[in-house]
Design goal:
This is RNase H type-1 domain-containing protein. The protein is mostly helical. It is 45% helix and 11% strand.
C-alpha cells in the first residue's frame, strides 16, 4: 500500500513527501535499517526509486492508535478489483468522528 500512496503523490507533482506507517518493520526496511529477504527486495527497490523522485522524503513509524483514520479506511470493504475514492462530503459518520477526535487532540490508549 505504501507504494501506491507514493505513486499517487508523485503523479500529483508533489515534491516533498512524509510517509507514515504503523508497521515498524516496513519502515525499517524502507529506511534500510532492517535486513530483508529477496522476496521483498524487488518491492523495496521500486519504493526506493519512487522516493528518490521527490526532492525530499521521510518515512517514519507511528502507532496504530495515532493513525486511527487510516486504520478505519483499511478495514472498509470494497468490491473485488475496485478502487476506493472518498471525498470529504462522502465520509461515513464514523470516519468524521475519528477525524474530529484527532483534530481535537484526543489521546488514544493502547489496550
Amino acid at each position: 500500500m505504501v507504494g501506491c500512496d507514493i505513486m499517487l503523490a508523485s503523479d500529483l507533482g508533489i515534491s516533498t513527501i512524509w510517509v507514515e506507517s504503523d508497521s515498524r518493520n516496513v519502515v525499517k526496511a524502507i529506511n534500510r535499517e532492517l535486513k530483508y529477504g529477496p522476496e521483498i527486495g524487488c518491492y523495496l527497490s521500486q519504493i526506493w526509486e519512487l522516493l528518490d523522485s521527490f526532492e525530499n522524503h521521510l518515512v517514519t513509524h507511528l502507532w496504530r492508535e495515532a493513525n486511527k483514520a487510516a486504520d478505519y479506511l483499511s478495514k472498509m470493504r470494497v468490491g473485488e478489483d475496485a478502487d476506493l475514492l472518498l471525498w470529504p462530503v462522502d465520509f461515513p459518520d464514523m470516519l468524521r468522528n475519528i477525524i474530529k477526535d484527532d483534530a481535537q487532540g484526543k489521546i488514544y490508549f493502547r489496550p
